[in-house]
Design brief:
The protein is of the alpha/beta class. It contains 24 helices and 23 strands. The strands form seven sheets. The protein has a five-stranded parallel sheet with strand order 4-3-2-5-17. A five-stranded parallel sheet has the order 7-15-8-9-10. Bound molecules: flavin-adenine dinucleotide and iron/sulfur cluster (SF4) (2 copies).
């Protein structure tokens, strides 16, 4: 191998945590692999508990989570990721069936901190906005012992769950289940109450709220700067969705053009299609493969008869008698410049008009921070996003912001994580320092490791079934159906069990190479120490293992390593399928299969004692 060395990493707790890629990628660190495996074991209620623990919106997320876990899933590097989101839905449905949708039982499964066992602190906190960020913040604050009141300007709780995400993707009874579970903690809600109009922030403090969490989302549509947007028949996408979701049926005519290539634009086009409008066009600057919308959303929109006009730049809304008559567009040569920046180039002379009765814009969202009217000491970007520090404080004492209003338009699970972070910051602010969060690992040696299902590496990913187009367009019926039990168990068995690790004990190993020979994935290698390159952790390990002083080691490192008989076991984690054959083959039990579980605990800063 010449001078080339193996670049290695000595596994530590952080390494094993990062090995569980699904959990590591989830903003609230849901132990996705664990609930997937609980489903594989037939324990669906435990699966729900594992999903619900860190996430009060587990049921909603089972349907519409943007699933960063799946994007990170290690199975994706072999073929396709495990269907983690759809399996969560299966666990949720199993729990609801088994408990008759018992919201109290669901609430009991939360693992959010309970400072002082949730005993009422006597302090009041106001939360402005009842979307996922505000609700998750309220949930965690209530668990921490605060008396929480949510102020919501609309007549319904749920933020974008109700006003943005269409019912055909997220049935309202699922939102209600999660919302009721959160409210069962004793949280008060004042609906139809707009902070900034019905009360100022100062008036909330006057009402003896000692801290305020602003979670007002991003409900404004960014304006499209082209001629003709003042014409009758031009709509802002977010407000149009809100009206339809509240039961209104706005007059849109027979031909509708939606401008935008993201998920929100797809939701609008598909919603309009369900209003029995046949002629729906979707126009965007990007090419089909550049569109920011999920591929599945685009595909389903096309199946539903929406005409896509890709690589078209809107130039002008064409009018007739003050009303929309069409959208003039120009072909796009390129959307991004050479450095990858958004900088569209157009093809002169390629202009055309798409005839339409209505034009709906969906080119981005902005936040309305009128709830801070009259306040000083905070900053906001040009799109209304409130600037926060690391603790999500906005520069005014006792006032914090979370979710889309603090981070810009994002995803549900990001908003939940942000609300949770704000709750912890508020707790620290109101209680003073004295406690801190520690990440801890629980490691269990698995004595009788059960090999994963036969041929599990060959099981293909199956998409959940969906309704036929005709049935979809007959109203707002839920498009995606759940897995059957049989499919759920089969799909769960695709998991590579990344929370199980092969742990090699150097004291017991006799370097027979049996594990290397038996490994079906060729991911093990025994090699001499002199072939290794690593960081100071490798140096420390060798010094400790062979009793060499730091000074001596640093002086004669190469000589020491080449004169040693020592060997190291290298493992390529990406390829390991946790079959356990290495552990089974080892004659000295030097290889064990060990389960790693991680949790965050709230501890007393001085004594280290666990508080929750
Ligand atoms: C059409 C659409 C589809 C989406 N689909 C998905 C999806 O499939 N998956 C996903 O992960 N994410 C999706 N998102 C993104 C996701 O919905 C948001 O990131 C998330 O809802 C943000 O949560 P939030 O709590 O910050 O704000 P919001 O959910 O927007 O809630 C804010 C709440 O504050 C209230 N409010 C505002 N001002 C005041 C005031 N002054 N006083 C009192 N109350 C006030 C509002 O009425 C609202 O109820 C979608 C977004 C849209 C628009
Ligand atoms: S294979 Fe399983 S444990 Fe590994 S990242 Fe995917 S879901 Fe998680
Ligand atoms: S568990 Fe299987 S794939 Fe992983 S190292 Fe051991 S033998 Fe190889």
């Amino acid at each position: 191998m010449g001078d080339e060395k193996y670049q290695i990493k000595i596994p530590d707790i952080d390494y094993f945590r990062k090995m569980i890629k699904c959990q590591d990628a989830c903003p609230v660190n849901t132990p996705s692999g664990s609930y997937v495996n609980a489903i594989a074991d037939g324990d669906y209620i435990r699966a729900y508990g594992l999903a619900r623990g860190p996430n009060p919106f587990a049921s909603v997320c089972g349907l519409i989570c943007n699933h960063p876990c799946e994007k990170a899933c290690r199975r994706g590097s072999i073929d396709e990721p495990v269907s983690i989101r759809a399996l969560k839905r299966f666990a949720v449905e199993s729990f609801m069936k088994a408990t008759n949708s018992n919201v109290y039982k669901s609430a009991e499964l939360s693992t959010a901190f309970r400072n002082g066992n949730g005993i009422f602190t006597g302090k009041k906190v106001a939360v402005i906005g009842s979307g996922p960020a505000g609700m998750a913040g309220a949930h965690d604050l209530a668990r921490l012992g605060y008396k929480v009141t949510i102020f919501e300007s609309k007549p319904v709780i749920g933020g974008m769950f109700y006003f943005g995400i269409p019912e055909y993707r997220l049935p309202r009874d699922i939102i209600k289940f999660d919302v009721d579970s959160i409210l069962s903690l004793g949280i008060d809600v004042r609906l139809n109450f707009t902070v900034g109009k019905d009360a100022t922030l100062q008036e909330l403090f006057d009402e003896e709220f000692e801290a305020v969490l602003i979670a007002v989302g991003a409900h404004l549509s960014r304006p499209l700067s082209i001629e003709g947007t003042e014409l009758e028949g031009v709509f802002h996408g977010i407000s149009l969705l809100r009206r339809v979701n509240l039961g209104e049926r706005p007059e849109l005519g027979d031909r509708v053009v939606v401008i935008g290539g993201g998920n929100v634009a797809m939701d609008i086009a598909r919603t309009v299609r369900r209003l029995k409008i046949k002629n729906v066009h979707s126009v965007c600057l990007e090419g089909l493969h550049e569109m920011p919308a999920d591929k599945l959303e685009i595909l389903e929109a096309m199946e539903e008869g929406i005409t896509l006009h890709v690589r078209k730049g809107p130039q002008r809304v064409v009018g007739n008698d003050g009303k929309v008559a069409g959208l003039r567009v120009i072909d796009v040569a390129a959307v991004f410049d050479e450095s990858g920046r958004f900088n569209p180039k157009f093809i002169e002379g390629s202009e055309s008009v798409i005839e339409a009765d209505s034009v709906i814009t969906a080119i981005g969202q902005a936040s309305d921070n009128d709830c801070l009217k009259g306040c000083e000491g905070f900053k906001a970007t040009r799109w209304g996003t409130i600037v926060t520090d690391k603790s999500l404080n906005i520069g005014i004492q006792g006032v914090f912001a979370a979710g889309d209003v603090a981070a810009g338009p994002g995803i549900v699970i990001g908003a939940v994580a942000s609300g949770q972070k704000a709750a912890r910051a508020i707790d620290k602010y109101l209680r003073g320092s004295g406690h801190k969060i520690e990440k801890r690992a629980k490691i269990t040696v698995i004595k009788d490791y059960k090999k994963p299902a036969e041929d599990y590496v060959k099981i293909e990913r199956k998409k959940p079934p969906i309704l036929g187009v005709e049935e979809r367009l007959s109203g707002f019926n839920q498009v995606e159906k759940g897995y059957t039990e049989e499919t759920a168990v089969e799909q769960a068995n695709r998991c590579l069990k990344c929370n199980i690790n092969t742990v090699f004990n150097g004291e017991l190993c006799i370097a027979c190479g049996g594990c290397v020979d038996v490994c079906p994935m060729n991911c093990l290698k025994l090699t001499s120490l002199s072939n290794l390159a690593g960081d100071e952790n490798l140096d420390k390990l060798i010094q400790n293992r062979y009793g060499i002083s730091k000074e001596e080691y640093e002086k004669n490192k190469d000589e020491i390593l080449s004169s040693m008989n020592g060997a190291a076991m290298l493992k390529d984690e990406e390829r390991c399928i946790r079959c356990g054959l290495c552990a089974k083959r080892c004659p000295t039990n030097a290889v064990t299969m060990e389960k790693f579980e991680f949790e965050e605990v709230l501890v007393n800063e001085q004594s280290g004692a666990i508080i929750n």
